[in-house]
Structures are given as structure tokens and as C-alpha cells.
Specification:
single chain, 168 residues, alpha/beta, Rossmann fold, four-stranded parallel sheet, 4 strands, 46% helix, globular
């Protein structure tokens, strides 16, 4: 439903007076980053630029296979232990999660993307973020922050402002 609501919101944005529809930008970090990329993928004719910082809900299979299903992804561990203890149905339930996996949307993004990753992120593992970034086929740039985890990155905020105000 969240993705449906985003589509409705984008229809509303198209009708608002005073909106320059050539300069609609999306920003999101963590879950907002995942939803932001889905917004871009589902509205390629509207969004011109997106700034994404450590997107959550990305590459569920990698999270599960690497045992990184803690903190934000602990629901994967819970589900697999209680409902698929032997892992025999993993393809089935991971396939279902593909409908909300940011990685599934990345190849559909057409706008320019500024992507940020804190390499010390233990909430959204950098490997999952790189999977999403590498799946983007649009114009993109990736800024790495070795000493930052899943937290505010002031230097990225500065880059976002420059990116959004840059001439097309």
C-alpha cells in the first residue's frame, strides 16, 4: 500500500499550482531511501533527481545468506526460524519480499542519483547498498563515508544541496 500511496501523492504533485515539474527531487535515508528509489522507479516521468543515503529494505537475500538479519532486518531471522526452520521455502518467501526489495526497483530508476554509504553501517550492510547502487542504470555517483554508520552524515547533506541546486 505504501507504494500505491506514493503513486497517488505523485499524481497530486503533478496537479499542484506553482510546482516546476522539471525539477522534482526525491531525498530519503534508510527506509526513506528505499521508498525514495521506489518512487523514482514508479514515476520516471516526474522525478529529475534523487539523493539516497543507506537505503533500507535492500537485497533481502544477501542479508539472510550473510547472517546480517539483525537490528533492522531481524524480522527475516524471526520468520525463517518460526516458519521455515530448514530453509526449504526460502526462495518462496524471499521471492515475495522482492515486491518491496529496493534492489527490485533500482534498474527502473531513470533520474540522476546521488548515493551515500557509511561503510561502518551495521543496520543496512554496505554490501546491500552496493547491490542497489550497482543495479542502477541511470546517471549516478556514489560517495563513501568510511567512518560513518547508520547515522546523520552532515557532509552528505551538503552534497545533497549542491546536487539538487545544480543546473540540469
Amino acid at each position: 500500500r505504501l507504494h500505491q500511496n506514493v503513486r497517488v501523492l505523485c499524481r497530486v504533485v503533478r496537479e499542484l499550482p506553482g510546482i516546476d515539474l522539471t525539477r522534482v527531487c526525491v531525498y530519503g535515508d534508510s527506509q526513506g531511501g528505499g521508498v525514495g528509489l521506489a518512487t523514482c522507479a514508479l514515476n520516471p516521468d516526474l522525478v529529475s533527481r534523487a539523493a539516497i543515503l543507506y537505503p533500507f529494505l535492500s537485497d533481502f537475500r544477501s542479508v539472510w545468506e550473510d547472517g546480517a538479519d539483525e537490528v533492522a532486518y531481524e524480522g527475516i531471522r524471526y520468520y525463517s526460524r518460526w516458519f521455515d526452520a530448514d530453509g526449504s521455502r526460502a526462495d518462496e518467501w524471499l521471492g515475495r519480499l522482492g515486491y518491496i526489495d529496493t534492489l527490485s526497483f533500482a534498474h527502473r530508476v531513470r533520474c540522476d542519483v546521488l548515493f551515500g554509504t557509511g561503510l561502518a553501517d551495521t543496520v543496512c550492510p554496505p554490501k546491500t547498498q552496493f547491490a542497489v547502487y550497482n543495479a542502477l542504470t541511470c546517471e549516478k555517483s556514489h560517495i563513501l563515508y568510511p567512518d560513518f554508520g547508520h547515522e546523520e552524515i552532515p557532509a552528505f547533506d551538503d552534497e545533497v544541496l549542491r546536487f539538487f541546486w545544480r543546473e540540469a
